[in-house]
Amino acid sequence: MHKIGRGHREKVQQFMAITGATDKAAIQSLKASDWHLEGAFDIYYTQLQIRAVTDSKLLEELYRRYKDPYAEMIMADGITLLCSDLQVDPQDIVMLVLSWHMKAATMCEFSRQEFIGGLQTLGVDSIDKLREKIPLMRAEMKDDQKFGDIYYFSFGWAKEKGQKSLALDTAIGMWQLLFAEKCWPLMDNWCQFLKVKHNKAISRDTWCQLLEFFKMIDPTLSNYDAEGAWPYLIDEFVEYLVENGLAHLP
Amino acid sequence: MSGPQRKNLFKIEPFKQRVELDPNYSDKAWKILEHAIHEIYSHNASGLSFEELYRNAYHMVLHKYGEKLYNGLVCSMTCHLREISKCIEAAYGVLFLEELNRKWVDHNKALQMIRDILMYMDRTYVPTSQKKTVHDLGLKLWRDIIIHSRNIQIRLLDTLLDLIYKERTGEVINRGLMRNVTKMLSDLGISVYQDDFEKTFLDASSSFYCGESQKFIECCDCGQYLIKAEKRLTEEIERVSHYLSSSSEEKITNVVEKEMIANHMQRLVHMDNSGLVNMLIHDKYDDLGRMYSLFRRVSGGLVTIRDVMTFHLRETGKQLVMDSEKLRDPVEFVQRLLDERDKHDTIITQAFNNDKTFQNALNSSFEYFINLNNRSPEFISLFVDDKLRKGLKGVNEEDVEMVLDKVMMLFRYLQEKDVFEKYHKQHLAKRLLAGKTVSDDAERSLILKLKTECGYQFTSKLEGMFTDMKTSQDTMQGFYASQISDSGVGPTLVVHVLTTGSWPAQPSIPCNLPAEILGVCEKFKAYYLGTHTGRRLSWQTNMGSADLKATFGKGQKHELNVSTYQMCVLMLFNTSEQLTYTEIEQATEIPPQDLKRCLQSLACVKGKHVLHKNPMSKEIAEDDKFYFNDNFSSKFYKVKIGTVAAQKESEPEKQETRQKVEEDRKPQIEAAIVRIMKSRRVLEHNNIVLEVTKQLQSRFLPNPVVIKKRIESLIEREFLERDKNDRKLYRYLA
C-alpha cells in the first residue's frame, strides 16, 4: 500500500468495500483500468467469471486428450486432432489467434501451461464452448489494437527456436495469412520484392516496422517520406516499386 | 544750501534741445553711396574716400535709415548686374565663358569693397532685420540675375558640357577657365553647382559613356576594352581633380563604372577567345589584374569573375579526371593536377590580390572534381610512390618538403582518405621490402605530415612498419653472430620480420622452396623462435627477392636479381633441361596467376630472356615448354628481372581493395553510432546520420544508407531500440 498515492488508496478501499475483494485483487483491477472505478469493476467481475466458469478438471482432461504420448506438450498430432474437433483448418487464422491467447512460445506446439492458461483466459473448458468462441476470435482480428498485438506476437511465435530472425518463406506465409482480410494492395509486391531482391531472413525490426508502414503509408506512396527512418529494406522496396512503375514518389 | 547730511549731487541734465537730423540727410547720404557703388562697378574706385563712405553708411544705420540703405543697395546692385548680364550675353562663342569669368572676378572685388564700406550695416542692421549680409546678398543677386537668367543659364551649361565633351574626344581645353567657372558655381551654393551643372553633367556623361562602351565592345576584345575602360576612369578622376568639385568624383566614377563595366560585365567575361576563361588559360596576369581591379568597383563584379572561374575550373577538372587517356599514367595525372593548382594559385596571387574568396573557390573546385574519380586516392599514392622511389633522388631537403607539402594539399581534398591510407600502406610495404626508398627522412617527413593532418591513428601502422625494418636488422645481426660456426656454407639469407597487423594483409600460400634455401630458413626460424617464444612465423614467399649467380652456355656469368618465385622456377633448371608449364607448377606450387606472370617476365621480356619459351607467344598455356637460354647476354653483370614496382591495380584487384575498404568502414561507423548514442541517450534518425558524418568526415564520407543498415544491425544486437511512440527516435540500451 505504501507506493500508492492517497487518492488511489481511497479508491482501493472503496473497491474493496463494494466488491469484497482482497486488496491485491483490488489494486490489480484498478491498475489495469487506469484507476477508474467503473472499469475496474468490469475487469474484476470478468476475471471472476472466467475463473468461476472454467472447471480445472475438465481442462486437465482436455489437455490429456491432445497431449503427445511421449512429451509434456501438445505436438503436431495433437493440434491436428484439436483442429478437426473444432472443425477448422489447421491453416486457419483462428489457430493463430488461439495461440496468441495461449501466449504460445512456438508454433505447432503448446505446453500444458499455455493450453490450460489460454482456455481459462477465454473462459471455456470444453470443445463445444471453444467452438462457440471461434467467431469472437475471428472478430478480434478486426480490432486494430488486438490485430497489432497478434501481429507482433506472430514474429516470435513463427520463428525457429534459438534464431534471431524469421526465415523468409515462413515470413511470407505469415504475412499472407495475417493480411488476408486487410486487403493491402502492396502485399503481393512486397513478397515478390523480397523473393527477388532480398532472399534472406527477416529481422524483428523490419517485421514490426512493416505494420507501421502499412498503417501510415498510402498504397500510392503519396505520403512516403524518404527521411522517415524506415528500415533500409522498406526503402529498397519503395525504390523497387518506383523502378517498376508501380508507384510514384511525391 | 542743504544741511550737513545731504551730499551735494552734481547733476548733469541731458540736452533738452534735440539735435534734429537734416531730413534730407539720408537722401544725401544715399546719393553719395549710390554714386560710390556705381564708381566701384566702373572700376573707378581709386577716387573714393573710404572714410567718408563708411561714415555715411554708419550714420544712416545709426539714425534708423538702415532699411533705406539696404533696399537702395539691392536696387543699385541689381541694376548694375543687369548691365553686366547684357555684356555677357553679347559675347560670342569662346569669349562667353571668359567674359563671364571676368565679370565674376570684378563682381567679387566690388562686393568686397562694398562690404567694407557697409560693414556697420552688416553688423547691426542685418542681423536684427534678418536680412542677408552684403556678401551673401551679392552672391544671391549674381545667381538670380546672371546665372539664372534664361539665356545665360542654358548657354553656360551647354558651353561647359561642350568643352568637356571636346576634351573627352581628345581636344585641349582651357582648364584654368573651367576651374574658375565651376568654382564660381560651388561658391554660389552647392545646390547651384549640382542643379545648374552637375546633374546634367552626369546625365551627359552617362550617355557619352553608354555610347562609347557600345562602340568599344563591338570592336574590341576583352583585354583591349578593359584597357580603354581603365583609361577613361583614370581620365575622369583626373578631370575632377583639375577643374571640378571633389564632391563629383565619386559620382562620375560611379557613372563610368556603371556604363562601361557593370552594364557589360557578362558580355566581357564570356567573350569568345578573349574573355575570362581565355585569360585564365593563357596566364594573362595583366589583363586579369585589370579585370579584377575594375570589377571590384561594381557590385557583383567579383562574384561574376569568381563564378565563371569556378565553373571553368570544375569543367576542366572534370574533363581531366574523366579522360581515360590521361588516366593511363597515374603519375602524369597527379602531376597535371599539381600543375593546374599551381597555375591557378599563381593567378590568384599575381592578379587577384591573393583574395581569400578566390582561394576558397579554387579549393572547393578542386575538392569537387578530384572526388569525381574514385581512383584519385590510389593515383595520389602512386605518385608519392614514384617520387619516393626515384623522383626525389638527389633533390635537396627544401625541395623535397615542397613536393610533399603540395601532395598534402591534394590529400586534403580527398573525401576518401581511408582509401589513400590503404594504398599508401601497400606501396610503402613494397618500397621498404625492396629497399627502394630514396630517402628515409622524406618518408618520415610525409608520415609526420599525415599524422598532423589526420591524427595518430592514421599513421601508427605505418610507423610500425618502419620499426619492423629496424628490428629486423638487429635480428639479422644476432642471427649471423649465432651462426659463425656455419658461415660460408649455403646461401646468405636476409630476413625481414613483419608484424601482422601493421603490414597490408596478404594471405599467401607458401610455395616449395629449393632445398638449399629451406635449410637456411629453418635455421633462422629456430633461432628466432628460440629468442621469441609464443610467436608464429610464416614465410611470405610472394614478397621476397633473391640474387642468383648464373653461368650461361658460353661461360658468361651474370648476377640475376629476381623475385622468390622466379628463383624457385630458375633453380629447377639446375636439374632439368626442359620443363613444361604444368611440371613447373607442380614442382613449385606457385599459384597459377602469379606463376604465369613470373614466367612471362623470365621468358617474354626483351633483353631479359633468361628462359626460352616454346611456342614464342606472349600468353602462357598449359603445355608450353621452357628451357634455359644458354645464349643469354647482357651488357651488365647485374641483371634485374624482379617483378615490377607498384603499379595501378587491375579491375579485379581494384574491386577487392574497395571491398576491403567498405568492410573496414562498417565497424568504424558502428563505433561512431555507439559513441554518439552513449552520450546522447536518445536521438532522432537524421541527427544520428549528421553526427556520424561529422565524426567520420576526416577519414571518409559515410553513405547514409550504410549508416542506416548499421543502425538496424545494432538494433538486432540490442544495442539500440526504437522509441515506442516515435518511430524516428532511437534509444541507447545500456
TrEMBL record, chain A:
Keyword GTP-binding: no
InterPro entries: DCN-prot, DCN1-like_PONY, PONY_dom, UBA-like_sf
Protein name: Defective in cullin neddylation protein
Function statement: Neddylation of cullins play an essential role in the regulation of SCF-type complexes activity.
A single cellular component GO annotation: ubiquitin ligase complex
Gene Ontology MF terms: cullin family protein binding; ubiquitin conjugating enzyme binding; ubiquitin-like protein binding
SUPFAM superfamilies registered for this protein in UniProt: UBA-like
Keywords tagged on the record: Ubl conjugation pathway
One Pfam family in the UniProt entry: UBA_4
Keyword Iron: no
Organism (species): Zostera marina
GO BP field: protein neddylation
DCUN1 domain mapped to chain residues: 54-242
Superkingdom per UniProt: Eukaryota
CDD domains: UBA_DCNL
UniProtKB/TrEMBL annotation, chain B:
SUPFAM superfamilies assigned: Cullin homology domain, Cullin repeat-like, Winged helix' DNA-binding domain
Span of domain Cullin family profile: 375-603
Domain of life, source organism: Eukaryota
GO BP term (any one): protein ubiquitination
Name used for this protein in its record: Cullin-3B
A Pfam family annotated for this UniProt entry: Cullin_AB
Keyword annotations: Isopeptide bond, Ubl conjugation, Ubl conjugation pathway
Entry GO MF terms: ubiquitin protein ligase binding
Gene Ontology cellular component annotations, sorted alphabetically: cullin-RING ubiquitin ligase complex
Gene3D superfamilies hit by this protein: Cullin Repeats (1.20.1310.10), Cullin, Chain C, Domain 2 (3.30.230.130), Winged helix-like DNA-binding domain superfamily/Winged helix DNA-binding domain (1.10.10.10)
Record-linked InterPro entries: Cullin, Cullin-like_AB, Cullin_homology, Cullin_homology_sf, Cullin_N, Cullin_neddylation_domain, Cullin_repeat-like_dom_sf, WH-like_DNA-bd_sf
Family: Belongs to the cullin family.
